[in-house]
Structures are given as structure tokens and as C-alpha cells.
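Severity: low
Component: inverse-folding endpoint
Summary: output formatting inconsistent between runs
Steps to reproduce: submit the following C-alpha cells with default settings.
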């Protein structure tokens, strides 16, 4: 059981349910190939059936960790820090991003956009999900829209979400890993016919790195 004091610190973002943290190469989207320190926060209720980190869903499985300790670990490695999940915006990200930026670290987030936008971000990657659609505030501020393509219907979903983001937002289509052999050729054809989109691949999986 989490005690009252810890609950308050979590509410303030001074502790977070940390699932894992690791130094690797960003494998997806606009910053593919960039050395990055990933911080994976536990907790998600969006519930994508193809999620490859379902162990992140239950926040109670991941110990509340002092946010300053997370920052101390991050600054030892890359200049770019990626906050992911789970769904990190289930928690207040303001304290974490403040501390990271005080260390001159770039703050990136990968989010479904289903929760209010907290924190100060150098880059917002919005990866919307049908189960729980993104809030307007996140769509308006997204730097990158990354839509996972599992079947043909997802192209319509991608266009619907693209109509909601700002004009400077970069647009990416990414094949869902388990269905990549079927969907990748369709994505190639789609992007060639709709060049406002780009292809994102999970290159870290091809490289066999985290």
C-alpha cells in the first residue's frame, strides 16, 4: 500500500511510478537514430490490444520513484530524454520536465494525448488511439503525429487525426510490428500517393536494441 505522503508526492509529480529507464537509440519517428535516454512511466488505461508493453498498464506494479533520482540518472547519458509509458500524461509532468530542463536536457514525450498536457516539452510525439481519443490541447501542440497502422481502416483514422493537428506537425505512419509484413507495402503505396505523410519504422527492433 502507498502511504498518504507518497500519494501526495506522486500527485505533485515529485515521485513517479517508474517502470524502467535506459539509454538507447530512438527507433521511431522524426528523431530516429538519435541517442536518447528513455524513461518509461507505469500506468495506462487506453488499452490497445497490440500494445507491446502491456506490463506497463498497471501503475501499482511499478514502484514510486523519486523524480530527482530519475533526473540524476538521465543526465549521466544523453542530452535528449524521452518520456514514454504506459501513458505518461496520467501523471503531472511539470516537476519532471522542469528538473530535466534545469540540467539542459531536451524533453520529448510520446503520448496518446488522452490526458491533459502537463510539463514543458521540446518535442511532443502524439500517437493517438481509437479507444481514447486525444484532447484538443495535445493535438494543437503536437510536433509529430505518429499513427500505428494495424489494418486498412487505420488509414482513415490517420487522416481524421491529421485534420486536427497544427500545420507544422510532421505526419508519420508506422506499421504495427506483428502485422508489418502485410501493412508495410500498403503504407509505402499510401505515402507515395499522399506525400504529406512519412514512414516510421521501429528500427530499434530491427537493430535488436531496447
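Observed output (run 2 of 3):
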Amino acid at each position: 500500500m502507498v502511504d498518504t505522503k507518497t500519494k501526495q508526492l506522486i500527485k505533485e509529480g515529485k515521485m513517479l511510478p517508474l517502470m524502467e529507464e535506459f539509454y538507447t537509440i530512438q527507433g521511431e519517428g522524426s528523431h530516429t537514430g538519435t541517442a536518447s535516454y528513455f524513461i518509461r512511466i507505469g500506468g495506462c488505461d487506453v488499452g490497445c490490444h497490440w500494445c507491446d508493453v502491456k506490463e506497463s498498464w498497471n501503475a501499482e506494479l511499478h514502484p514510486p520513484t523519486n523524480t530527482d533520482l530519475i533526473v540524476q540518472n538521465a543526465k549521466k547519458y544523453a542530452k535528449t530524454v524521452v518520456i514514454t509509458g504506459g501513458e505518461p500524461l496520467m501523471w503531472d509532468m511539470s516537476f519532471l520536465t522542469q528538473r530535466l530542463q534545469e540540467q539542459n536536457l531536451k524533453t520529448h514525450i510520446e503520448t496518446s494525448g488522452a490526458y491533459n498536457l502537463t510539463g514543458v516539452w521540446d518535442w511532443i510525439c502524439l500517437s493517438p488511439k481509437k479507444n481514447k481519443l486525444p484532447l484538443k490541447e495535445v493535438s494543437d501542440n503536437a510536433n509529430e503525429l505518429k499513427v500505428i497502422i494495424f489494418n486498412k481502416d487505420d488509414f482513415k483514422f490517420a487522416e481524421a487525426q491529421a485534420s486536427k493537428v497544427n500545420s507544422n506537425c510532421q505526419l508519420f505512419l508506422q506499421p504495427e510490428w506483428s502485422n508489418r509484413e502485410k501493412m508495410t507495402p500498403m503504407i509505402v503505396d499510401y505515402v507515395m500517393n499522399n506525400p504529406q505523410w512519412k514512414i516510421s519504422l521501429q528500427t530499434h527492433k530491427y537493430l535488436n536494441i531496447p
